[in-house]
């Protein structure tokens, strides 16, 4: 038994004429109005846009004050912490796909900060500080890998592959 409009459905004119009411503003909703269901409540689009957001990633519905934004898109707390990180060097918020985990920096770095200070050894893939890396033909090597692969020519003092080194009678490399 319904009393004087306190229910969320209007029963004027019999069962076939029942109208949904917006849970937030109590506006009568019919086929002309977009209806959105949030936690088993029917809400009009105006109230939804004012009070709720949809996570860009998982499509979870959340209240406006519960969302996190990145590049004008809304994310729930779980998706936001899974997808984004703060660069340890420049403190810029970035998508994890645009960064790298650094053991030396003890955290995530954006690609720009990583490329300014760090690199990976071409041979063993260990992370290195750029200042500690040996460079041969625009490739970076750690000390061990560099010394195992390269030597210095005694005549021109340039680095060469060990396999390409020749030795004279005095066992000097050239």
Topology readout:
Elements: E1 9-10, E2 19-21, E3 28-29, E4 35-38, E5 41-44, H1 45-51, E6 52-54, E7 61-63, E8 68-70, E9 73-75, H2 77-83, E10 84-86, E11 93-95, E12 99-102, E13 107-110, H3 111-117, E14 118-120, E15 127-129, E16 134-136, E17 139-141, H4 143-149, E18 150-152, E19 159-161
Antiparallel strand pairs: 1-2, 2-3, 4-5, 6-7, 8-9, 10-11, 12-13, 14-15, 16-17, 18-19
Account of the protein in words:
It is a single chain. The protein has 174 residues and is α+β, with helices and mostly antiparallel strands. The chain is 16% helix and 34% strand. The protein is built from 4 helices and 19 strands. Strands 1-2-3 form a 3-stranded antiparallel β-sheet, with no helix packed on it. Strands 4-5 form a two-stranded antiparallel sheet. The longest helix has 7 residues, at 45-51. It is rod-shaped. The termini are far apart. Mean pLDDT is 80; it is low at 1-6 and 8-16.
Put the structure in a nutshell.
By secondary structure, the chain is α+β, with helices and mostly antiparallel strands.
Given the structure, what is the number of helices?
4
Strand order of the largest sheet: 1-2-3
The separation of the N and C termini measures 102 Å
- Beta-strand content bin: 25-35%
Poorly predicted tracts of residues = 1-6, 8-16
Report helical residue fraction: 10-25%
Radius of gyration: 32 Å
Count the E strands. 19
Q: Can you write the helix and strand succession as a string?
A: EEEEEHEEEEHEEEEHEEEEHEE
Q: Specify the structural class.
A: alpha+beta
Overall pLDDT: 80
Main pleated sheet: 3 strands, antiparallel
Shape: rod-shaped
